[in-house]
Amino acid sequence: MLKVQGLTQRYGSRVALDALSLSIARGDFVVLLGPNGAGKSTLFQVLTGLFAADEGDVEVAGLSMRSDARRALSHIGVVFQQQSLDLDLSIARNLQFHADLQGLPSHEARERIAFEAARFGLVADLQRSVRELSGGNRRKVELVRALLARPDLLLMDEATVGLDPQSRRDLIDGLRDEVRQRGVTVLWATHLVSEAEHADRVLVLHRGRLLASGTPAQVTSSLGGDTLEAAFLNATRQAG
Ligand SMILES: Nc1ncnc2c1ncn2[C@@H]1O[C@H](COP(=O)(O)OP(=O)(O)OP(=O)(O)O)[C@@H](O)[C@H]1O
């Protein structure tokens, strides 16, 4: 579903992505785990077409971001680090507005909004303004919004920043449901090891390079440590 080949991005003399290659199979829930400055946001900016990297290419569903960006992007849904809902509109209006932008027929939009709102426990709040919602529910609305166009690949860039453990859990559980039922592929960037523990695969990124890739147990043993957290801390402290 996603193939990244030899991606390099420099900011002056700083190398944010260093010939990075990775691939993700359809229906996988993959956590991209990296400390601050590892290159997660830079990677997401390239994946979402905000800019082309200095070198390398990205393929989404077999479509090159360099030569066929518009079609490649049509397969992607994204939740960025920065929140971007209209605070004065209700949840329903925010979602409807986005569905209109995507050109979804209104009966389909209504069905999907109702379906996803139920999955994420938002039904009772649909007519409330976003301003009145907790941070956790705001993130859920953004996730529902990203799912409206039924993307094949969902990118989540540190989507749980600022949420308490229960809200983080609810968001991840809702998304895992989506993965199970619809086979959506998820790339979830975070610096929180606890969010990687239930992933199908973990990719450990440090200084723009992949240090390890595999199930949480495989990554723990390949990086050397009793727990994923110990292995991650050990590897990102040592790696030069
Ligand atoms: N616009 C920019 N100009 C210069 N350097 C940048 C720019 N954006 C990122 N960098 C540098 O590139 C490297 C990777 O940054 P990036 O934001 O991609 O990492 P990150 O893993 O998303 O970090 P965080 O978890 O802190 O958001 C860092 O060293 C950062 O300082």
From TrEMBL:
Keyword match GTP-binding: no
Pfam families: ABC_tran
InterPro entries attached to this UniProt entry: AAA+_ATPase, ABC_transporter-like_ATP-bd, ABC_transporter-like_CS, ABC_transporter_ATP-binding, ABC_transprt_ATP-bd_su_PQQ, P-loop_NTPase
Assigned keywords, A-Z: ATP-binding, Cell membrane, Membrane, Nodulation, Nucleotide-binding, Transport
GO molecular function: ATP binding
Family matches, as PROSITE patterns: ABC_TRANSPORTER_1, ABC_TRANSPORTER_2
Top-level taxonomic group: Bacteria
Ranges where the ABC transporter domain occurs: 2-232
Family affiliation: Belongs to the ABC transporter superfamily.
Stated name of the protein: ABC transporter ATP-binding protein
Organism: Variovorax ureilyticus
